Request: fold
Amino acid sequence: MKIGVAGLLIAIICLSPLTIEPATANSECSTDQQFYGSLTNLKGKREGIISNRHQEHFWITADGVFHALINNGKKQNALQLFSSINGIDWFLQITFSNTNHRSHPDGFLKDDILWIVYPSSDDEIFLYKLSYAFQTKSWWAKTNTIKVYQQAGYVPDRPTLAVDRWDQIWVAFSELDQKTNQTLIKVIKLDGNMGGLNCCEAVPATFSISTSSIKSARILALEDKIVLIYTDKINDGKKNEDYGYSLNWAYMPLPYLSNSEWITGGELLQYKSDENDPHGTHFNVAKDSFDNIHIVTRAEKRIIYLSIKNGNSIQIDQARSITTESSPPYMQISISENNEIYVIYPVRCMRHEKLNFNVKILKSYDLGETFQETAILELDHKNHPGNPRLEAPENFKKTLPILWQIRKKNRKYEMLFFDI
Reply:
């Protein structure tokens, strides 16, 4: 692993464990901007309809149509792509037959092309390339599904993908060696045609190999580099240690050459051992139009924000808490076409003299320098949030659409739609 590269200045703050004041149990929901959601026909038999947090499952095409990739929780045919004109009534586009309740996908939308990557029910990683027909509001496959990865004795999981400006596709995922019980982050590269000599080339990575299962990666493509945001252990995850795992980053300069190597960016944040994040997925990432990377996560029950500013030099803005109240780890970050940053997170707060589960939205007009509360999503008393999972698109143009998973009395799960 390289530590630096000639000609590139990296400005990195020496990080120490984040000091956070104890979170308050609840607070007043002080904003006047209140929104109530509409019940959709998106449903699932298990909790993780839109899991995991470091992956993307929600997009908006140029015609304003919404598209969501959900897992219905079934043992077969679990992964499904839906579309909706109004966000409430969704129609099924595609069912992925070789999927089950453990198939947690990721997707990337560029113009009218949607790439989808997912783990199959047979411990494989598949990539699907879809083209959107604006007249019929439908998706069709431009090529056959490509098997990106399969190796006997290894279990790949939780993939993410990125597409660089040469239309090369990069897929990152965690891989468990069933013999040694070691897990590592693996990266695969293939060309935009999803075939040929450059298909499915493994990009060497020698970091993040351990017996810890707290390990996931989000891969992003900037103009001049591929960036990997990933979690990994610090001290074998021992419960008697204060800090058990960390959020880290590395990057690969572009264009990619046969002798290219990952350059370590270092540690971004340390988490305590009791964060209850079994796979290291409790973070969400978005990129603005300046190629800056914005990250939200949770530590010690508070929402944490940090950023990686990209340019002639790389500036790491140190992680800081942007909330005071206790919050479950179901945060999202979205960026508007004007580079306004929205952080969405659930919280219990006082409303109408009752302690309710709500979702707060913070907004930044200055690329994350400051945040202010801008809206709150209300939950009807008839609905129970369960674990309040949220999904919002990484980028949007006009209004911000949000999906909020709720739990029904019959232990089934449905989605509420909000348009902010």
Notes: The mean pLDDT is 87.
